[in-house]
Amino acid sequence: MGFTPKAIFLDMDGTILNHLNKVTMATKDIIDNLRSKGFYVFVATGRSYDEIAGVVPEGFKVDGFVTSNGMAGYIEGDVVFEHSLSIELVEKIIERARESKVYYELFPYGAPRVTLKQDQAYVENEIREPKPEGVGINEWLSRKQAIKEEISWEETIEGNRFSKFYFFSRTKEHINNWKNELEQLKHEIDFTTSISSGHNVEVMVANVNKATGIKQILDQFNLTSAEAMAIGDSHNDLPMLDFVQFSVAMKNAGEQIKEVVDEVTEFTCDEDGVYHYLKSKFNL
């Protein structure tokens, strides 16, 4: 490797999560092993904090979490930092999403994700079978589960603390048109967008991403980016991979990601790629 990190940041979807949206016991065990030897291990994910418990094995522990693409950070369950979308932005984006019939999930802090009831019909229609050919099975399963169990269909938006928007479309043309619309909206209200597949886009507070979140977590441990490494697989990982001293892409990552990192894992997320990589690199 050429250098030994003190802190290791791991993406979830497509990295420690396989395409069935599960973290294996092998991955849990290698993280436990690293932490027992004095390494700090963190998760840096686009998922909200409330989503994590359902996809990790019992007893899964890390030293902290960067969630919602840098919008919030947690150590031992306590909030270290938290950014929130404004209610003005939330209402404006929902109005535009409705006009474009774009599937959306709004993630309030500490509450189930929300979609308004008046949008339920077209949102559910986006998740009709069969699965579109280009959509990853992990993203499709997540959307099916969201529709069935996780979305709270509400008459109005309540509260004032929101971690992110998630948008999805069956077709790349539809989501790309929506991305263009969001870019135009940035001229009215500043915010950041991030993508993790060709069929989605997420909205966060302006100038927030995984790298800004990682810096805030590192500060809590008196560490710097020069002492950190990260493993990821998709576009929303690019700020993180650029920020740390040593970056690793999954074998299943896109070529754009592989081109900018220091190393690529030998195995994919479905082959316990993170487990094998860390076991080999740290001689565990």
UniProtKB/TrEMBL annotation:
PROSITE patterns assigned: COF_1, COF_2
Record flagged with keyword Transcription: no
GO cellular component entries: cytosol
UniProt keyword list: Coiled coil
The organism of origin for this protein: Halalkalibacter suaedae
Extent of the signal sequence: none
Iron listed as a keyword: no
Pfam families from the UniProt entry: Hydrolase_3
Name assigned to this protein: HAD family phosphatase
Coiled coil regions in record: 168-195
Domain of life, source organism: Bacteria
GO MF annotation: an example: magnesium ion binding
Entry-linked Gene3D superfamilies: 3.30.1240.10, HAD superfamily/HAD-like
InterPro entries registered for this protein in UniProt: Cof, HAD-like_sf, HAD-SF_hydro_IIB, HAD_sf
